[in-house]
TrEMBL record:
Topology in the lipid bilayer: Multi-pass membrane protein
Predominant localisation class: membrane
Ranges annotated as spanning the membrane: 6-26, 112-132, 138-159, 284-310
Type II secretion system protein GspF domain segment(s): 178-302
Name assigned to this protein: Type II secretion system F family protein
Presence of the UniProt keyword Cell membrane in the record: yes
Amino acid sequence: MSGAAPVLIGAGIGLVAGIGLALVAVGNPWLRRRDLAARVDPYLRRDRGSALLEHGASASGARTFVRTLLGPVAQRMLGLLERLTGGSEQLEKRLRMAGRTSGIEAFRVEQVLWGIAGLVIGLVLAFLAVGARGASPLLGLLIVLLGGVIGIVGRDHLLQRTVARRAARLAREFPTVADLLALAVAAGESPVAAMERVARSSRGALPEEFGRTVAEIRAGSSVSHALVQLGNRTPLEALARFGEGVSIAIERGTPLAEVLRAQAQDAREASKRDLMELAGRREILMMVPVVFFVLPLVIVFAIFPGLAVLDIAL
């Protein structure tokens, strides 16, 4: 055991030195080819701020430093990440559904950072397993690789959880927002003005989406196309049906207030059905403590007096 510790320490130092030299070689600007897009990219302005959209939060200095340091390594791992977590089109759709304004490259860099963190944690666990427990070095290598894969897949799973939480939040907000739109339209406002009023006077995920829709319409997009895009970038199917229904009502001249009230009623009915399904699933889970904890106690309390009487009789 004492002879294996210096070998492990030397192997760790060599691994860290090798990774450092590889990062220096990859990040050398004289050895790295840069195209015209990479040279012009730092000077482009990406601010999409408007009266309806809030300015995005600036990245912290530490996060920018890590991205700059590990950027070349992240670019070489994009192919592996796409094979593990899906293609670019599917990822872009999920990022839109999660409400993120950052691009695919930023999310891939986050996945690389999570993977590196998993590798570091796996390396520490491998050293503990091999040095302290005397496990096989092959098992240690497997732990390191497993830590990296768990880090990458874990970031993707966190994105999926974000999409699910945002869908639930939109489902809670949709009936109320649809009623507000119906009241504004019934008062004589146009659909665009009604969506703008809701976006300005309300707070939440759905008013923000309406704000983006109004911004697209103000920028020159048609109302029907903007409403279809609203349904495409949100994970809620009711919003997709809402966009289609409103666009058809505008094109055919159907009373829009009635359509919006019907959409709100359908959303409430769908919410009730979801609650009933959730209650049905929770009812099965509630049987676990009843069967394994409450029922044995009831049996003990029912049988114990009889056993006590038998003991006294004997």
